[in-house]
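User: C-alpha cells in, sequence out, please.
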C-alpha cells in the first residue's frame, strides 16, 4: 500500500458517496429499469448498486472526454483547413488476470450503447494477440503466458494503428479461455467504431524494444485494482466455473481437470496463480497502475470502494 499513497498525489480520490454524486442530471432519462434488468441478466453477479453508483458517473466522464476528443479533431481540421478522417476514441482497461477487466469492459460497453444508440461502440481484448500455444511451446515459454514476451506486440500495434487511422475493416484475433488457445479462424471485424474499448493485462505496458506503445493510442485508460489475495479468490472462482462447464467436452482444456480429483485440480490452479499470474501482476502489471487515468479499486465481492481520477 505504501507506494500507492504516494501515487495518489496525482489523483483525486473518491469514496463511493463522493463519486456517485457525479452522475450528472440526465440519468433518469437515459437508463430505465428494463435496461438495468438486461445488465443484470447479462452478468448475474454484477451488483446493480455498482451500476448506479460507479458506472453511471464513469459513463458520463467517458462521454464528456469523448466529446472534447471530437472537438479537438474539429480544431485540427479548422487549423489545417481541410477535412480530417474519422478516428475512434480508444479506452484501455488494464489490471491483473481475473481482476474483472472483461466484466468492466462489457458493462461500460453496454451502458454507453444504451445511452448513445447512435454511436458505434466496440470492444476487443488483447489476449487474441498472444502467440498460439504451439508457438509458445516452440519458444519454450508456454509457462510464461501473459508475460510481455508471450504477446505479438508488433501485430497489436499495427492493428491499433489501422483502427486509429480509420481503416474500414480491421480484423482482430480472438482468444478462447475454454480451449486455452488463440482461435485460428475467428476474428472480430472492427468497422470504424466511434468508441473502442481495448481490455488486457498489458495495455499500459511499455515494452523496452518499442518506439510506440499501446497506450499511445489511448484517449482514456482505466486500471482495475484489488488486493492480490482477493484476486486469487476470484481467479479460483473462475477456475471452478471453467471446470463446471468442461465435463461434457473432451476438447475443453479443463476437461482432464474436470473429470479428475477436484482438490488436485484446485491445488494446480493455486500453483499457476502463484507462479505465473501473481508473479506477472507484481513484476509487469502493477507497475503500470500509476499510468492510468482512472483507477477502480475493488474490495471483497467485487465491490468498488474507491475511485482515483488523474488530476493532470
Ligand atoms: N463486478 C463483478 N461482480 C461479480 N463478479 C465479478 C465482477 N467482475 C468480475 N467478476 C467475476 O470475477 C472473475 C474474473 O472476472 P473477469 O472479468 O473474467 O476478469 P479478467 O477479464 O480481468 O480476467 C469472473 O469469474 C467474473 O465472473
Ligand atoms: C490468457 C491470460 C493471459 C489473459 O488473462 P485474462 O485477463 O483474460 O484473464 C490468462 O487468462 C492466462 O491464461 N494466464 C496464464 C496462466 C493461467 O493458466 O492462468
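Assistant: Sequence out:
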Amino acid at each position: 500500500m505504501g507506494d500507492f499513497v504516494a501515487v495518489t498525489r496525482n489523483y483525486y480520490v473518491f469514496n463511493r458517496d463522493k463519486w456517485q454524486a457525479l452522475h450528472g442530471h440526465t440519468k433518469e432519462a437515459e437508463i430505465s429499469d428494463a435496461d438495468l434488468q438486461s445488465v443484470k441478466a447479462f452478468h448475474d453477479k454484477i451488483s446493480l448498486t455498482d451500476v448506479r453508483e460507479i458506472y453511471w458517473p464513469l459513463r458520463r466522464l467517458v462521454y464528456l472526454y469523448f466529446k472534447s476528443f471530437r472537438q479537438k479533431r474539429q480544431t485540427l481540421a479548422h487549423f489545417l483547413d481541410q477535412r480530417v478522417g474519422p478516428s475512434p476514441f480508444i479506452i484501455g482497461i488494464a489490471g491483473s488476470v481475473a481482476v474483472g477487466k472483461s466484466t468492466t469492459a462489457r458493462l461500460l460497453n453496454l451502458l454507453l450503447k444504451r445511452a448513445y444508440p447512435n454511436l458505434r461502440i466496440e470492444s476487443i481484448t488483447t489476449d487474441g494477440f498472444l502467440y498460439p500455444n504451439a508457438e509458445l511451446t516452440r519458444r519454450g515459454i508456454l509457462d510464461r503466458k501473459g508475460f510481455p514476451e508471450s504477446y505479438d506486440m508488433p501485430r497489436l500495434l499495427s492493428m491499433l494503428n489501422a483502427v486509429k487511422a480509420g481503416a474500414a475493416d480491421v480484423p482482430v484475433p480472438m482468444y478462447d479461455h475454454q480451449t486455452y488457445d488463440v482461435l485460428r479462424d475467428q476474428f472480430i471485424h472492427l468497422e470504424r467504431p466511434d468508441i473502442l474499448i481495448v481490455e488486457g493485462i498489458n495495455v499500459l505496458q511499455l515494452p523496452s524494444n518499442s518506439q510506440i506503445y499501446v497506450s499511445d493510442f489511448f484517449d482514456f485508460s482505466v486500471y482495475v485494482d484489488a488486493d492480490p489475495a482477493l484476486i486469487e479468490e476470484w481467479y479460483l472462482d473462475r477456475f471452478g466455473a471453467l471446470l463446471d462447464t468442461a465435463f461434457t467436452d473432451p476438447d475443453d482444456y479443463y476437461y482432464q481437470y474436470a473429470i479428475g480429483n477436484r482438490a488436485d485440480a484446485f491445488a494446480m490452479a493455486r500453483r499457476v496463480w502463484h507462479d505465473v499470474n501473481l508473479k506477472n501482476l507484481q513484476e509487469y502489471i502493477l507497475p503500470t497502475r500509476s499510468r492510468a487515468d482512472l483507477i477502480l479499486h475493488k474490495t471483497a465481492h467485487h465491490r468498488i470502494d474507491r475511485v482515483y481520477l488523474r488530476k493532470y
